[in-house]
TrEMBL record:
Organism for this UniProt entry: Streptomyces liangshanensis
InterPro entries to which the protein is assigned, alphabetical: AAA+_ATPase (IPR003593), ABC_SmlMolc_Importer (IPR050093), ABC_transporter-like_ATP-bd (IPR003439), ABC_transporter-like_CS (IPR017871), Mo/tungstate-bd_C_term_dom (IPR008995), P-loop_NTPase (IPR027417), Transp-assoc_OB_typ2 (IPR013611)
Pfam families linked: ABC_tran, TOBE_2
Protein name: ABC-type quaternary amine transporter
Entry keyword Transport: yes
Length: 347
């Protein structure tokens, strides 16, 4: 449905251009939920503005249903965009906000009223049409903004940091609701966020961006299991990412020798060890184990993050609350090869 080919956007003058998007290729299929994930400044909002027609291209093409959108104005693209700071109209009530796009399209008053009611039911705010937006909580405002974006039945719905303003528990609940809702409606969605939890919970496919370029694209599981680079791995929150040299089935690392899966690339690489692959045992552990000192512990619900130090090298492990070693304790560490991922060397 949506296809971006070599999309480039530069800001600033010719002498000092800033490239916000650098030859981005991206496809979104009908009914697909694609989530672009990247740090602040990586070009996510610019990407959405390009598709909406709010931002001119320096190069490349945007196609919707196969039609080049060059010269097609915003209101003729049939896309809905929900901005980062949902920008409700404070002087209008909830119904007036939701009906906005319908009014602009000359939809009759009866039809507007019917549709507003339907949408408020859909987003879990039945009968809220007469309420003042200023009297709503952040989560309720978010739902109104969503209803407003959905009202004109856009062929593509774009969401910019849709849940960014909300606290974690509400965000987690809403993201699950949204996924269910989009599934039922068959909405095609392109969302952007800097929050990996949000992206992974919402998306059929995740596209990781760095400095205006696509760093990786894949299903949440693919990206999680096999980050394409040290950047992606670190951005997903993995901490055990180090330069290493692979020879045969063993890598030479700052933690000593670590087993790698059969068939791994040889020579200079980046090595990722998931926390689950760091096996901690009390005392010095079995012969050949890496001797570490517990530097710190962080409680994470039912698990404890354990920061270990082996000489200069740091290593993060995760233990059950019951069996977690204490600060200052000496432990032995071995590595589980199936939790080790060999990545290309960092640039
Ligand atoms: P994100 O949404 O991922 O945080 P943006 O798309 O907002 O990133 O911005 C990408 C880059 O482009 C940033 O370096 C930002 O400063 C720059 N940028 C965005 N919009 C403009 C603009 N209108 N003028 C100049 N620079 C801009
Ligand atoms: Mg942004």
């Amino acid at each position: 449905m949506l296809s971006l080919a070599g999309v480039t956007v530069r800001f600033g003058d010719r002498k000092a251009p800033r490239t916000a998007l650098d030859a981005v290729d991206l496809e979104v299929a009908e009914h697909e939920i694609v989530c672009v994930l990247g740090p602040s400044g990586s070009g996510k909002s610019t990407l959405l503005r390009v598709v909406a027609g709010l931002q001119e291209l320096s190069g490349g093409r945007v196609l919707l249903d196969g039609a080049d959108q060059a010269g097609v104005p915003v209101h003729r693209r049939g896309v809905g965009l929900m901005f980062q700071d949902h920008q409700l109209f404070p002087q209008r009530d909830v119904g007036g906000n939701v009906a906005f796009g319908l009014r602009m399209r000359g939809v009759s008053r009866d039809e507007q009223a019917r549709r507003v009611e339907e949408l408020l039911d859909l987003v879990g705010l039945p009968g809220a049409g007469r309420r003042a937006v200023s009297a709503l909580s952040g989560g309720e405002q978010q739902r109104v903004a969503l209803a407003r974006a959905l009202a004109p039945r856009p062929r593509l719905l774009m969401l910019d940091e849709p849940l960014g303003q909300l606290d974690r528990s509400l965000r987690e609940r809403l993201v699950a609701e949204l996924r269910g809702l989009f599934g039922r409606l068959g909405t095609t969605v392109l969302a952007v966020t800097h929050d990996q939890g949000e992206a992974f919970a919402l998306a059929d496919r995740v596209v990781v961006m760095r400095d205006g370029r696509v760093a990786q694209s894949g299903t949440p599981l693919e990206v999680w299991q096999r980050p394409a680079s040290a950047f992606v791995a670190r951005f997903l929150g993995f901490e055990n990412v180090v330069p290493a040299t692979v020879a045969g089935s063993v890598a030479d690392t700052p933690w000593g020798r670590v087993p790698v899966p059969a068939g791994s690339s040889q020579g200079a690489v980046t090595l990722l060890v998931r926390p689950g692959g760091v096996r901690v045992s009390a005392g010095s552990g079995e012969p050949g184990a890496l001797r570490c000192v517990v530097a710190a512990r962080t409680f994470r619900g039912s698990r404890v993050g354990v920061s270990l130090r082996a000489g200069e090298a740091l290593l993060e492990a995760e233990c059950e609350v019951g069996g977690a070693p204490r600060e200052g304790e000496v432990v032995g560490v071995t590595f589980a090869e199936d939790e080790v991922v060999v990545l290309p060397p960092s640039r």
